[in-house]
Amino acid sequence: MSTPTETRRSHTTASATSSITRAVAGLRDPLRRTTSVLSWITRAAWIMLVFGVAAWIAGVQLGWLELVVLGVGMIAVLVASAFFAIGRHPYAITLRLREGRVVVGDRAMGGIDVRNTGSVPVLPARLELPVGPVTARFALPALAPGGEHDELFAIPTDRRGVLVVGPVRSVRGDPFGLIRRAVQWTEPEDLYVHPRTTRLGSASAGFLHDLEGRVSREITNADLSFHALREYVPGDDRRYVHWRSSARVGELMVRQFEETRRTHLVTALSVNERDYAEEDEFELAISAVGSLGLHTLGTEAELSALTQQRAINVRSPRALLDDLTRLDSKRMPAGVVDLARTVTKDAMRATIAIVVCGSAVSAHQIRAAGAVLPSGVRALAIQCRMGAEMRAHRLGAVTVLELGRLEDLPRGFRRLKA
Question: What value does the mean pLDDT take over residues 52-58?
Answer without folding.
Answer: 88
